[in-house]
């Protein structure tokens, strides 16, 4: 039976990361970005989002993302209030015409399917499921008009390969929430790639961003002008019209926009998406290499090709309770590596987004070893 043996454990300083934030969202926000926000606050925060200071921020988001993802001609960047969860509701109204196909292999990929299943104006979707820790594959279906994929399942640490699927007139909609900015993407393979900025883009939540193809833009405009009722706050066409003017339909979280711009432009300065993706893969190799090496841990995702480079999930042996390890780490300043609660596994989940330093990831594994050695011994007594 687990004890409170770790209550007074103090990890040696030379084993501690310089920054102990490894959450999978909200993620680490670099201190330098917060300092810059404080510096510009008097002329930015508390000002109208229809005026140049905020509109310039929106413009930097749109142009920076177009550059980061090398968007093909005709693709546009739209943004609005809410988050990726709100975008599911929006997509059910503005991007799915009649019926969709969904890959469901974790908490978040399944939620979009649930949204569509409850939409009275849509036919029942085709849902292709696989067990947590695995990724199913889509298949061509003539009776659907949208394929709904997830680039990275945040709850389980499974990545999904994104390739163009479908016939002319069928859209590919991809949830990129924990992948965007940290995993490679062929933008030509998608029609809508949507995400919120509190993961790879090291900001707070409250905003959704979408990369849209001409086909997605056309469908949104057509459905919006048809007989389907669409609330203004969920109208993608209205959001795009405002985005083209470098603004949002209603008041955005200005501090979040600023933090997003700081991380986006930092990634571009370092070398863009190839650099960020390589940095995340480096951090992931540290975690998975450690989990393969130590006797009390193992990667949760069995197929190495499906292991996420931005969210690593690691199972621990029963004698090393993950909850107890996390509590000790938190008391020592290392936070938010608990497993996803609904999986119910003895597991750690580690955010490896671009803002996280790979040397901090290495220190994290050393700290876990130090704690596990003492917690495991105590639980065997």
Description:
There is one protein chain. The protein contains ten helices and twelve strands. By secondary structure, the protein is α/β, with parallel strands linked by helices. It has two domains: 13-29 and 271-380, Alpha-Beta Complex (Aspartate Aminotransferase, domain 1), CATH 3.90.1150; 32-269, Type I PLP-dependent aspartate aminotransferase-like (Major domain) (Aspartate Aminotransferase, domain 2). The strands form three sheets. It has a seven-stranded mixed sheet, with helices on both faces. Strands 10-11-12 form a three-stranded antiparallel sheet. α3 runs parallel beside α4 (107-117), α7 (254-270) crosses α8 (272-293) and α9 (322-331) crosses α10.
Tags for this model:
381 residues; 7-stranded mixed beta sheet; alpha/beta; Aspartate Aminotransferase, domain 1; single chain; 3-stranded antiparallel beta sheet; 14% strand; globular; Aspartate Aminotransferase, domain 2; 12 strands
Short structural description:
The chain is of the alpha/beta class and 381 residues long. It is 38% helix and 14% strand. The chain is built from ten helices and twelve strands.
In round numbers, the mean pLDDT is: 95
Q: Which CATH class of the largest domain applies here?
A: Alpha Beta
Give me the count of strands.
Answer: 12
Query: Percent of residues in helical segments?
Result: 25-40%
Instruction: Please give the count of helices.
Output: 10
Low-confidence stretches: none
CATH evolutionary superfamily of the largest domain:
Type I PLP-dependent aspartate aminotransferase-like (Major domain)
């Amino acid at each position: 039976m687990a004890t409170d043996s770790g209550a007074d454990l103090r990890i040696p300083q030379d084993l501690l990361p310089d920054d102990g934030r490894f959450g999978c969202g909200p993620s680490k926000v670099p201190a330098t970005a917060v300092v810059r926000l404080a510096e510009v606050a008097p002329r930015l925060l508390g000002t109208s989002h229809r005026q140049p200071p905020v509109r310039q921020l929106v413009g930097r988001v749109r142009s920076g993302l177009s550059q980061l993802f090398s968007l093909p001609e005709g693709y546009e960047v739209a943004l609005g209030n809410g988050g990726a969860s709100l975008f599911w509701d929006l997509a059910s109204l503005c991007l799915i015409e009649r019926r969709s196909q969904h890959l469901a292999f974790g908490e978040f990929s399944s939620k979009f399917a649930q949204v569509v299943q409850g939409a009275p104006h849509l036919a029942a979707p085709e849902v292709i499921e696989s067990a947590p820790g695995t990724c199913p594959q889509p298949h061509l279906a003539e009776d659907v008009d949208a394929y709904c994929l997830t680039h990275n399942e945040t709850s389980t640490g499974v990545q999904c390969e994104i390739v163009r699927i479908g016939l002319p007139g069928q859209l590919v909609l991809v949830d990129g929430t924990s992948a965007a900015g940290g995993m490679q993407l062929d933008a030509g393979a998608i029609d809508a790639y949507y995400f919120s900025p509190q993961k790879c883009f090291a900001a707070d939540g409250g905003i959704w961003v979408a990369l849209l193809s001409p086909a997605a833009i056309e469908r949104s405009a057509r459905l919006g002008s048809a007989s389907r009722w669409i609330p203004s706050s969920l109208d993608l066409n209205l959001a795009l019209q405002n985005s083209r003017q470098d603004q949002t339909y209603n008041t955005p979280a200005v501090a979040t926009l600023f933090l997003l711009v700081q991380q986006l432009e930092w990634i571009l300065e370092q070398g863009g998406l190839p650099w960020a993706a390589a940095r995340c893969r480096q951090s992931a190799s540290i975690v998975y290499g450690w989990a393969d090496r130590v006797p009390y841990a193992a990667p949760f995702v069995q197929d190495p090709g499906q292991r996420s480079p931005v969210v690593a999930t690691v199972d621990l042996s029963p004698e090393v309770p993950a909850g107890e390890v996390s509590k000790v780490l938190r008391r020592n300043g290392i936070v938010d590596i608990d497993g996803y609660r609904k999986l119910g596994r003895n597991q750690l989940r580690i955010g490896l987004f671009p803002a996280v330093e790979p040397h901090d990831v290495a220190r994290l594994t050393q700290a876990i070893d130090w704690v596990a050695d003492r917690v495991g011994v105590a639980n065997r007594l």
